Amino acid sequence: MQWEIVIGLEVHTQLSTNTKIFSGASTAFGAEPNTQADAVSIALPGVLPVLNKGAVERAIKFGLATGARIAQRSVFARKNYFYPDLPKGYQISQFDLPVVGQGALTIQVEPLSGNAKPYEKTVRITRAHLEEDAGKSVHGNSQGVTGIDLNRAGTPLLEIVSEPDMCSAAEAVAYAKALHTLVRWIGICDGNMQEGSFRCDVNVSVRRPGEPLGTRREIKNLNSFKFMQQAIDYEVQWQIDTIENGGKIHQATILFNPDTGETRAMRSKEDAHDYRYFPDPDLLPLEISTEWIEQVRGTLPELPQAKQARYVSELGLSAYDASILTASREIADYFEAALSVSPAQAKLLANWIQGEISARLNREDKNIADAPIAPMQLAVLIGRIVDGTISNSAAKQIFDHLWTPKDAELVIGDSLEDVTKGINTLIETKGLKQVSDSGAIEALVDEIIAANADKVAEYRSGKDKLFGFFVGLAMKASKGKANPAQLNDILKKKLAG
Question: Does this model's pTM top 0.90?
C-alpha cells in the first residue's frame, strides 16, 4: 500500500448517575434550558465541588471490564480554556493521574467493502479518566443568535482514550460499536447517541509505510457510526490528496458535515500545555481501596466475550450465533430467559430470535425489550414444534397472533402454566394441530397413490423428482396438518412398492 491510515478514538461516555459529578443537580435529559445549571456547575463564588461516589464506581467497573489497572490514587485537575458554554473558564478533569490506566478491548471487524473476511483485533486502551461535561451551544432558535444551555454542565463523563491501533474506518467503527455495547452492558451509560450520551472524537493521520506518524486531525463529536465511517473515509482521502499535491497537514480540530459528506476545520488543535493543567485546589486526591475495587468487581455481570465463549462451548452454538445473541445485554437476557424454560432448544431459540423476532423488531423500529412476545411464550411455542404438535409454518401463524392479537379471543397469562394452556388453546381453536396419527397419514397416502398410478409408475422408473409432487398432494389433502417427517417416511415406503 502507498499509504497507511492511523486512527485513535477518544470516546466521551455520559455516566448513568442521577446527579452531576460534583453536585446534587439532576442529570435528566430534556429539561427546560438552564433549569439544572446549579451554583456548583457554574462555579459561583464560595461553592465547593463534592465528588459523586457513583461516578467513581462506574469508572472502576469500566476498568475492570477491560482488564485495566485501577489507580488507587488519582488526581483531579483544572483544564483551563475559554468557550461560551464553559462559564467558569475551566473544566475539572484528570490529566497525568487518571482513575483507569491501560486496558484493552477485543473487537470483531467486518470489512466495509471488498471480499475480505471478518477478523479479530485487540485495541489497546491508553486510559479512561473522569471529568465534567460542558454546557451546550444552541443554534438556530433565533436568527443570528446562539443560545447557551448549561443543563449539561457538570454531568459526569468517562473519557476513554485508545492507542492509535486502528488502520481503517471499519476497525474504528467496530471498536466504537464494541465500546458502545460494553458500557451499556455493564450499566454505566445508556449509550443514547442522539442525546449525546456517547460521543466520539476520531484522530486521523496518514503516512507512507515505514515513516513516522503523520500529523493528526481530530474529528469532533461524531454521534453516529454511519457518520463516523463517512467522516474517516473523507478525511483520509483529503489528507492523502493534500500531501500528494504538495500541501502540508496542520494539526486541527475539524467537524463533519453529514449533508455534504465533508470535513472542515473548526480551529487549530491545542496541545496539553495550552490548557495549563494544575491540580484542582478544591478536590482532594481520589483514594480507591482494594476492598472497594473488589466490591465493585462483584457487581459486574458476565461480560459479552465470556458469554459468547460459554454459548459456543456449553450450548453448541456457532460463533456467529453467539455474537448475535450478545450484541446487547437485552438480547442475551431475552435468550437466556427463553432458554431457562426450554434448555434443550438453544439452536432453535437462537434461530427464531435472529429470524422472526429480529425481522419484526427491525420493521417496527423496536428494541427486544419492547417485543410483544415474552421469552416464555417463545420457548413454549418452540416446544410445540419440537414435540410435533404443530409444524414450523403453523408456529409462525401462532407467532403472528402473539405479536399482534387479531381479536380478543384469548388473553395469555404470565405463568408457565397459563402460557402453555393459552398457546395450546390457540392451536386448537385455529385448527393448526399437526396430524401425527400414522394410520390416518397412511390412508391419505394410499388414496393419493391410487389416484395417480401413472405418476407412481414414472417415479418407480427413476423420476425421483416426482417425490415433491406427491408430498405437495398429501399436504394439500391434509390441509397442511400432516407431520412432514412422518409423511415423508410413509410416502417413501409406499412409493417403493
Answer: no
